[in-house]
Amino acid sequence: MARIAGVNIPAQKRVEIGLTYIHGIGHSKAKEICGKVAIPSERRVNELTDDEILKIREVIDSDYRVEGDLRRQVAMNIKRLMDLGCYRGLRHRKGLPVRGQRTHTNARTRKGPAKPIAGKKK
């Protein structure tokens, strides 16, 4: 099992798929990384040599923002919006959908489980 950017990559997966376990790396970036390191797409993680794992680590560290740094940046961006008091920041603060979705029905993921309102009957 390879450990890259603080994440254990499953050994039986293909390298491109295994890299997507790292926060901030999706399919396209994983293919890009494999291209830079010259690893064929059908190669498995357990077939990688120590040298290839080291090259992958170096490419990710130098070219991409992943895991803790990325999470910190996203949190700081949200905090900045909240401090500004702009519309998106207010929506984040209230725990409501930020991107224009309807809230009359739906939006249960952001709003949490439905709470009954006492005395509201037809």
From TrEMBL:
Keywords assigned by UniProt, alphabetized: Ribonucleoprotein, Ribosomal protein, RNA-binding, rRNA-binding, tRNA-binding
Coiled coil: none
Family (UniProt): Belongs to the universal ribosomal protein uS13 family.
Function recorded in the entry: Located at the top of the head of the 30S subunit, it contacts several helices of the 16S rRNA. In the 70S ribosome it contacts the 23S rRNA (bridge B1a) and protein L5 of the 50S subunit (bridge B1b), connecting the 2 subunits; these bridges are implicated in subunit movement. Contacts the tRNAs in the A and P-sites.
Name this polypeptide is given: Small ribosomal subunit protein uS13
Record GO terms (molecular function): rRNA binding; structural constituent of ribosome; tRNA binding
Pfam families named among the record's database cross-references: Ribosomal_S13
GO terms, biological process: translation
Entries under SUPFAM superfamilies matching the protein: S13-like H2TH domain
HAMAP family in the cross-refs: Ribosomal_uS13
Region (Disordered): 95-122
PANTHER family, per the entry: 30S RIBOSOMAL PROTEIN S13/40S RIBOSOMAL PROTEIN S18 (PTHR10871), SMALL RIBOSOMAL SUBUNIT PROTEIN US13M (PTHR10871:SF1)
Subunit (UniProt): Part of the 30S ribosomal subunit. Forms a loose heterodimer with protein S19. Forms two bridges to the 50S subunit in the 70S ribosome.
Organism from which the protein derives: Skermanella stibiiresistens SB22
Assigned GO CC terms: cytosol; small ribosomal subunit
